């Protein structure tokens, strides 16, 4: 079989992105139009504005992706488009564009689940990622832990019970008056802070569950900011950002390592926007090293939303001939279906008292 070129289009939220990927992992082009400046004054994404900007730029972004890949539209083998979850109006733009392109070029359309895209982002740029692996998927809308057996087979071990990790960063940044999107701003500010000067409780650190919960730590931050007299007088906002970030990261790392120990899987993948966090990347690598686990984290640009991950996930569908019909609809919410090939053996979490947790 010759090379397979797939165009990936992503418009699920506030990024208009397109990329051409060869054989599921080799990125030939990657174009991103971020709408940060449009939404920043409102402190979050305004869905109506997001759809409008997607409409304005999607044509240019896709054209640039095809040109940068030094290819022609008639050389593409398929068009992969994010079908959901996301903002319906925003998704509709990419999906309609992708359908029209696939129809006019007479090539298959591939409807991609956004989370499958994030999971596939770990494979970009490298030929092979070991299976099985534990995947921590942390983004603005999700904080999930998976045991991934193959590109098509995964089992969800945990999820967030309330806010996602990215949401905790975004809302925390808002309370600190930093702006939007909050994750990178907290990450940056925390570099000059001292987490020990602003200690926060660990959010839902239970070793009996792989689920996460981040709503409590937001409340802790609110109280912290409301009662300055209780803290050391020279506590800076950098210290607070560092303390807040450290608690979130600690729990993400702890539960991921716990899962790897419990399931006896020594490869760990961290994906999604929050995987760009410098403390998370470093702490995960350090903790994993003490267990002789390997950590695989995408390049920074493939952590946050991008077209290449959608093309990479689309490649799996393409190789299995799972083509979408031209009447597929976008969806706002839909969990990534558990598709374990065979359930990975592990007792229930409650039966794992012997798992060694480093703190
Ligand atoms: O995957 P993504 O681009 O979009 C969703 O699918 O949600 O993730 C966006 C999220 C935002 O909440 C953003 O604040 C967070 O990822 N993020 C970060 C960092 N960069 C982006 N969070 C912490 N540290 C970062 N460096
Ligand atoms: Zn995403």
Write the layout of secondary structure elements.
Blueprint: E1 5-10, E2 15-22, E3 26-34, H1 36-39, H2 47-68, E4 78-84, H3 88-105, E5 109-113, H4 114-121, E6 133-138, E7 143-150, E8 153-158, H5 165-175, H6 182-190, H7 215-226, H8 237-263, E9 267-271, H9 278-290, E10 294-296, H10 307-319
Helix pairs in contact: 2-3, 4-10, 5-6, 5-7, 5-8, 6-8, 8-9
The structure holds 5'-O-[(R)-(carboxyoxy)(hydroxy)phosphoryl]adenosine (KG4) and zinc ion (ZN).
Residues 13, 139-141, 166, 169-170, 181-184, 187, 272-274, 276-277, 304-305 line the site of 5'-O-[(R)-(carboxyoxy)(hydroxy)phosphoryl]adenosine.
Task: Label the overall shape.
Answer: globular
Secondary-structure arrangement, i.e. CATH architecture of the largest domain: 2-Layer Sandwich
Structural class: alpha/beta
Number of domains: 2
Span between termini:
48 Å
**CATH homologous superfamily heading of the largest domain:** ATPase, nucleotide binding domain
Overall number of strands: 10
How helix-rich are the residues, as a percent range?
Answer: 25-40%
Walk me through the structure.
- This protein has helices at 36-39, 47-68, 88-105, 114-121, 165-175, 182-190, 215-226, 237-263, 278-290, 307-319, and strands at 5-10, 15-22, 26-34, 78-84, 109-113, 133-138, 143-150, 153-158, 267-271, 294-296.
- The protein is an alpha/beta fold and 359 residues long.
- It has two domains: 5-122 and 303-319, 2-Layer Sandwich (Nucleotidyltransferase, domain 5), CATH 3.30.420.40; 133-298, 2-Layer Sandwich (Nucleotidyltransferase, domain 5).
- The strands form two sheets. Strands 3-2-1-4-5 form a five-stranded mixed beta sheet, sandwiched between helices.
- A hairpin with a 4-residue loop joins strand 1 (5-10) and strand 2 (15-22).
- Helix 5 (165-175) packs across helix 6 (182-190), helix 5 runs parallel beside helix 7 (215-226) and helix 5 runs antiparallel to helix 8.
- Residues 13, 139-141, 166, 169-170, 181-184, 187, 272-274, 276-277, 304-305 line the site of 5'-O-[(R)-(carboxyoxy)(hydroxy)phosphoryl]adenosine.
